[in-house]
Automatic annotation (TrEMBL):
Keyword Membrane attached: yes
Protein name: Tetraspanin-13
Topology relative to the membrane: Multi-pass membrane protein
Chief location bin: membrane
Transmembrane segments: 27-47, 127-150
Pfam families per the UniProt record, alphabetical: Tetraspanin (PF00335)
GO cellular component: membrane
Subcellular location as annotated: Membrane
Keyword Hydrolase appears in the UniProt entry: no
Keyword terms: Membrane, Transmembrane, Transmembrane helix
Length: 162
């Protein structure tokens, strides 16, 4: 479901002109497809009852680990940096060299621009808590389904002829 939302948000962003680069939309759609494949692996894990541990791992990702993942993403997505900096009104990831250029409006108006890492970190933390919470919710509903199946599977039909 998250992967389909990600693909839909990418299409919405290009439709409203929030994202100017088709490469960025392509990358977001590729990530959506990747997440869909991960969801399929998650379904296989759910069959083996490992979804609970994956959800807990998603919720247990600390700020330092989130920062490391975001920095790797920032360093590997040169085309998305301009869109991120323009939309979030920030320059650089943790620091910004004043000799570089930045498409953010704070840079154009010569105000002091804040780094992007704390802003992106807040969004990433919210997303991880949301996705982990959804995973836990479905883990508990899966446990309920297993209990109901165990309880009612092999009962005799009272209308059947003994």
């Amino acid at each position: 479901m998250v992967s389909l939302l990600l693909i839909g948000i990418a299409a919405w962003g290009i439709g409203f002109g929030l994202i100017s680069s088709l490469r960025v939309v392509g990358v977001v759609i590729a990530v959506g497809i990747f997440l869909f494949l991960i969801a399929l692996v998650g379904l296989i894990g759910a069959v083996k009852h490992h979804q609970f541990s994956v959800s807990c791992a998603c919720l247990a990702l600390n700020q330092e680990q989130q920062g490391q993942l975001l920095e790797v993403g920032w360093n590997n997505t040169a085309s998305a940096r301009d869109d991120i900096q323009r939309n979030l009104n920030c320059c650089g990831f943790r620091s910004f060299n004043t000799n570089d250029t930045c498409p953010a409006s704070c840079f154009k108006s010569s105000h002091l621009c804040s780094p992007c890492a704390p802003i992106i970190g807040r969004y990433a933390g919210e997303v991880l808590r949301f996705v982990g919470g959804i995973g836990l919710f479905f883990s508990f509903t899966e446990i309920l389904g297993v209990w109901l199946t165990y309880r009612y599977r092999n009962q005799k039909d009272p209308r059947a002829n003994p």
